[in-house]
Amino acid sequence: MSSEASSEKAEEKPKIDVSKLVAVVPPASEVLGKKQKQLTEKRIRVRFDRSLNKPIAKVPTKLAEELGIKKDDLVEIVVAGKKKARFTAELIDSPDVNTVWVYPGELEKQGVADNSIATIRRAAS
């Protein structure tokens, strides 16, 4: 009796077609071929450039491409989530992608030191 009961249970459950499940998952080549989405902000090192006499941020071109920043766009630099300053972007060729050189006036008033870590993003118009 027990062998008949087990064979009936096996017949009741239909086998799952694995090929239908696999069809839902995209192939690896399709996933890898897609472009990465553009970054909106990035953590960088802020350095003061005392030769600047107006609110300008010298942004490396590679960093600007990653963030979608163009020449003369407004960029916002935020230190510790509280201290914000806006600068006009000036693109420079620099081997150090994670350092942005800025006019120190506004940041010094807020108590930000040279060589601080900050977040840079394109300013909302």
Main features:
alpha/beta; 27% helix; six-stranded mixed beta barrel; 125 residues; elongated; 2 domains; Barwin-like endoglucanases
| CATH class placement of the largest domain | Mainly Beta
Order of helices and strands: HHHEEHEEEHE
SS summary, helix count:
5
* CATH architecture annotation of the largest domain: Beta Barrel
- Biggest β-sheet strands, sense, barrel: 6 strands, mixed, barrel
Radius of gyration: 27 Å
Q: How do the strands line up in the largest sheet?
A: 1-5-2-4-3-6
The amount of helix comes to 25-40%
Task: Round the mean pLDDT to the nearest integer and report it.
Answer: 82
- Give the CA-CA distance, first to last residue: 79 Å
Structure class: alpha/beta
Share of β-strand residues: 25-35%
- Shape category: elongated
Q: How many runs of DSSP E, i.e. beta strands?
A: 6
Number of domains: 2
Uncertain regions spanning at least 5 consecutive residues: none
If you consult CATH, what is the topology of the largest domain?
Barwin-like endoglucanases
Explain how this protein is built.
By secondary structure, the protein is an alpha/beta fold. It folds into two domains: 2-33, no CATH class; 41-122, Barwin-like endoglucanases, CATH 2.40.40.20. Helix content is 27%, strand content 32%. It is built from five helices and six strands. It has helices spanning 2-12, 18-22, 28-33, 61-67, 105-109, and strands at residues 41-48, 56-60, 74-79, 83-92, 99-102, 116-122. A six-stranded mixed beta barrel has the order 1-5-2-4-3-6. The longest helix is centred in the N-terminal third of the chain and has 11 residues, at 2-12. The protein is elongated, with a radius of gyration of 27 Å. The termini are far apart.
